[in-house]
Design a protein that fits this description.
The complex is a heterodimer of chains A (about 150) and B (about 180). Chain A has about 150 residues and is α+β, with helices and mostly antiparallel strands. Chain A has two helices and nine strands. Chain A has one domain (about 25-140): Immunoglobulin-like (Sandwich), CATH 2.60.40. Helices cover about 20% and strands about 40% of the residues of chain A. In chain A, the strands form two sheets. Chain A has a five-stranded mixed beta sheet. With about 180 residues, chain B is of the alpha/beta class. In chain B, strand 5 (about 105-120) and strand 6 (about 125-140) form a beta hairpin. Chain B is elongated. Classes of the chains: A alpha+beta (about 150), B alpha/beta (about 180). At the A-B interface, strand 5, strand 6 and strand 8 of A face helix 3 of B.
Chain lengths: ~150, ~180
């Protein structure tokens, strides 16, 4: 009887967490054209069982640009220069890119172990690695002011 | 004379081991090449010319300064490259590793920064200075430590300082360039 109750609690928990995740957009497609005088930064998170229910805002400066979900990605067009991308749950992770116009950069997001909640980790990855891992990722919705 | 026997208790040994493990996780390992004497940086040596660099000026060696029209016809080309290492620790391991709870690393941040300064007179390369800095930081449940942004900044400044020191060691050669027409 106890086992059935535990199973029911787990099932409800999974359904609850699943309902929190938004509907993601279409599967990844490479951006063909980068607007003039801008660079492209593709931020993605490959599918992983660990921390799958955890999502976090990715910010530039103090501006949240989107929320990164498991198996999600987002293409961000940035002005050239040094730009810091960061995310935070119970700890902060940040990477800085020296963006040049017309260039594409890839940032991979993951979730690692934490005390109370999974911790975000952002890292810069080369194009060949990113293009393999991003293929099944879906577009995350843009962050809108609430 | 009273002699005391120093017995190493297993409890103390364990405490020592755990403290060492915890502190090891906090430190960032930095390796820079080439090795240059620290004293070389003390010199206030500076050489003027046209600088070709469009990045953050904080990372530019301070031994070179800009002048719109170079009297010495010297040009400086500075560039750097930052390469990021992959996290070798599989994500699932820390979840099932009981040592995670006592500070065993759960991941690592590694990066390598390379800087290069080329001194030119017209199209002729007079001298090249380069430096490489490798940084490695392990993360634990208790300490996330420096972010990639902070490590990158630290690496770029270390490379800048190293190139400055190399130039200060070469100050005689560079002064001659300065005096040549």
């Amino acid at each position: 009887m106890k086992k059935i109750a535990l199973f029911a609690v787990l099932l409800v928990g999974i359904l609850f967490l699943h309902s929190c995740a938004p509907t993601l957009g279409p599967v990844y497609q490479k951006v063909d054209t980068i607007p003039e005088n801008l660079g492209l930064v593709v931020i993605y998170r490959p599918s992983s069982f660990i921390g799958a229910a955890v999502s976090y805002d990715v910010k530039v400066g103090e501006t949240p640009i989107f929320r990164l979900y498991n198996e999600g990605y987002y293409p961000y067009f940035s002005k050239p220069g040094e730009v810091e991308f960061w995310a935070k749950t119970e700890s902060r992770s940040a990477v800085t890119l020296d963006i040049r116009a017309g260039q594409t950069y890839y940032i991979k997001g993951t979730v690692g172990i934490g005390f109370l909640v999974g911790r975000p980790h952002l890292m810069v990855v080369p194009e060949d690695v990113a293009e393999k891992e991003i293929s099944k990722c879906k577009l995350c919705p843009e962050k809108t002011e609430q | 004379m009273h002699m005391t026997k120093n017995k190493v208790r297993p409890k103390n040994l364990l405490l020592y081991f755990l403290t060492t493990l915890f502190l090891t996780g906090c430190a960032t390992k930095t390796v820079i090449t080439p090795q240059v004497a620290e004293t070389a940086r003390l010199s206030n040596f500076q050489i003027k010319g046209i600088i070709e660099y469009d990045g953050n000026r904080d990372y530019l060696p301070r031994t070179i300064s800009d002048e719109s029209i170079s009297d010495t016809m010297l040009n400086f080309q500075y560039s750097y490259d930052v390469a990021y290492g992959r996290d070798k620790t599989p994500q699932a391991i820390p979840l099932f590793n009981p040592l995670t709870l006592i500070g065993c690393p759960v991941g690592e941040n590694t990066l390598v920064v390379k800087g290069k300064l080329v001194l030119l007179k017209g199209k002729e390369v007079l001298k090249e200075y380069s430096a490489t800095c490798g940084l490695e930081k392990t993360r634990s449940l208790f300490s996330e430590g420096e972010t990639f942004s902070e490590l990158r900044k630290r690496g770029l400044i270390a490379v800048r300082d190293n190139i400055e020191a190399q130039m200060c060691q070469d100050s005689d050669f560079l002064s001659n360039l300065k005096n040549q027409e």
